[in-house]
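User: New here, please read:
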Amino acid sequence: MNKNFKNMIIIFIGFFFLSLFSNTLSPFITTIKNTYGVSNDAIAILPPVVYGASFIMSIVSARLQSLISLKRGVHIGFLFAIIASVVILVSKSFYILLVGYFISGLAVGMGTVFLTTMLSLLPKEYQKFSLANACFGLGGILILPIDRFILKNSINFNYTYIIHIVCVVVFIIISSKIEIF
């Protein structure tokens, strides 16, 4: 298999798994509110925490790219996703959950910047940004039935993050096959 094609496919898989991870929060907002017994004002801070962390990490990642390899940056970004998943999985208080979701924002910001940069460094014919966006969109669509299943069967929402830990570990193994970056 052509190495550039293989790298492109691995990057697409990264966008898909990153989307599965980043789109898990929204369906669980009400569940989180009820589980942790927080007010509407308190739960309203959760999305800005995630998106603020993602924004901050996007800026930091742009500076990190000159210091670490792109492959290492992707691995670190996805390791943040594992750390965030573990924190969310074991959180017993809303404030610990906020920390977990802050780390998840860092993961999404770093993963997006490094994956996008890797895609932009492929030869022109492999720079399929529309397909990368489609993979991200597909992840956002496919996580919804999983979340719905969790909610419908009264399974603790935290357990969804076990799926993410498995997916991220699989992606880290797959992404170790990226050549050159």
